[in-house]
């Protein structure tokens, strides 16, 4: 039998973006499926059977043989076994090269347009990382760059925009920041909120600072809690980029790089921060730095409003004491790679490692 065919992440992304019919088959154990997955994929818990060379592992699977099938697992090895079995059954099948580890770099976009500016939301669909390009009068600012810099370069070129500024909402723990790379490439100022431990040259941002971009003003709002330096960006009085402080259905975790006493203190800071944000106009659109679900290729921005958050995020209805207690009870396990990623982002250099290896896995930034 011929070797199973493979497909890379970029090609599968193109298929999904263009609406090409495809059946995507997840053969991983259920626990891995629960962590993260490819949007629209079908799950069959066949990994252990495939590992034991069980030729009947995929029996009972009935897919349209007129539509290509893509199998995937964690690293791309066992999905080759699945692909060969399906190939023998007459399917046109491909195995996803590098599996979910490779898929961690998959991305898509969505846009929001206003009179004086537009925002492009870049979404790492597997990890749920969200970054932003704000464009006004052909001037651009990128915030929380988490993708390979070629993604942002592509849009700068298509929008005929000049990259004026780079910024972060905070020092991230679940992905490697590409902002410093972009800043150096374009000789553009790189803004970081204070207090931070960054070991490289940057321009400090503090509460109340303002940045002029084209025809709009971007206002800096200090929002500590998730981290000491966590900051939100109010854009044209219409959009609030909240980083990992406030999500569309939850709030940020306050425990990273903190002992229990420090986590309680940060929880208090987070409570006060969130109460401050909830006083903003209810029509302001909130755009976070992460989402807890895989991002569909649907061109629909991941967004909500201050008013919707006030009404629908139950944890924000609690008083300070109840909020702190609830936060402490709901903190998710800390992924093993978080501290290593923080250290790389503080240093501003990850040239000595393979980003795919360090970044693999879903984010666990939110508490709901």
Provide a brief overview of the structure:
By secondary structure, the chain is an alpha/beta fold. The protein has helices at 9-18, 30-35, 47-51, 78-88, 99-103, 149-159, 179-186, 260-277, 306-312, 320-330, 338-347, 355-359, and strands at 5-7, 23-26, 42-43, 69-72, 93-96, 107-113, 118-124, 129-136, 139-143, 162-167, 190-193, 203-205, 210-213, 216-222, 231-235, 239-243, 251-252, 285-288, 304-305, 366-367. It is built from 12 helices and 20 strands.
Helix and strand content put the structural class at alpha/beta
- Give the count of helical stretches: 12
Largest sheet: 7 strands, mixed
Strand content: 15-25%
Strand order of the largest sheet: 6-7-8-9-10-11-12
Oligomer: single chain
Characterization of this structure:
With 368 residues, the chain is α/β, with parallel strands linked by helices. It folds into 2 domains: 5-102, Oxidized Rhodanese, domain 1, CATH 3.40.250.10; 106-367, Ribonuclease Z/Hydroxyacylglutathione hydrolase-like (Metallo-beta-lactamase, Chain A), CATH 3.60.15. 29% of the residues lie in helices and 24% in strands. It contains 12 helices and 20 strands. It has a 7-stranded mixed β-sheet with strand order 6-7-8-9-10-11-12, covered by helices on one side. A 6-stranded mixed β-sheet has the order 13-14-15-16-18-19. Helix 8 crosses helix 10. The longest helix has 18 residues, at 260-277. It is globular. The termini are far apart. The mean pLDDT is 94.
